[in-house]
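Whiteboard transcription, Tuesday session. T.W. wrote the structure tokens on the left side:
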């Protein structure tokens, strides 16, 4: 199956780009304008919310949300190990932490990056951004406290959580903070950094 991924450097599409690569499926990267000559419409036609990632499947199905795409790719390429199998001991931890990351941490960027969408007063915007930043740190520290990587997020088993760690530790509060306050998460991120197939993706999205 061939896919087209609407991607923006350094954004959440990097998670899906890495997952597609791990799944060893063919895909093409698109910008916001799409590629009408190949039948790929502009991003907002495919996804009116205009969010990255947006994934076009070969049959024309549109997929959004990194976690949903991760589960789809596991259906397509289970040997990639993006999601632990149903009877795997690690699956419950995977489901828990994936939901925390995509449900509690990931949305903080939606609100903090564009506070003017939600509150109009400048003072309120600053307060919103500051409080969100602190909340984000609190959640990461909770994860850190329960993490026992050896060497991956789930222990010996690689999963899509390692991709999230590699990407999201590059976002605020950024890696210097993670190194100081969440060294176990940082070790997971560095382990994922070193996956040979993903090195070009990190370089393209983050410059290293």
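and on the right, the sequence the group agreed on:
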């Amino acid at each position: 199956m061939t896919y087209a991924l609407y991607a923006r450097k350094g954004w959440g599409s990097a998670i899906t780009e890495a997952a597609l690569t791990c799944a060893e499926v063919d895909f093409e990267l698109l910008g916001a304008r799409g590629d009408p000559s190949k039948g790929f419409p502009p991003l907002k036609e495919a996804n009116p919310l205009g969010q990255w990632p947006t994934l076009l499947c070969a049959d024309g199905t549109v997929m959004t949300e990194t976690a949903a795409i991760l589960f789809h790719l596991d259906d397509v390429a289970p040997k990639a190990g993006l999601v632990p199998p149903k009877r795997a001991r690690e699956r419950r931890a995977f489901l828990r932490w994936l939901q925390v990351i995509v449900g509690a941490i990931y949305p903080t960027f939606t609100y903090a990056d564009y506070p003017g969408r939600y509150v109009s007063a400048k003072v309120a915007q600053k307060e919103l951004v500051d409080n969100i930043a602190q909340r984000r740190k609190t959640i990461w520290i909770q994860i850190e406290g329960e993490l026992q990587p050896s060497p991956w997020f789930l222990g010996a088993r690689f999963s899509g959580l390692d991709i999230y760690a590699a990407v999201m530790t590059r976002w605020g509060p950024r890696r210097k903070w993670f190194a100081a306050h969440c060294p176990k998460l940082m070790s997971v991120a560095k382990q994922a950094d070193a996956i040979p197939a993903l090195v070009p993706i990190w370089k393209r999205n983050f410059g290293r």
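Someone added at the bottom: The domain at 2-80 is CATH 3.40.30.10 (Glutaredoxin).
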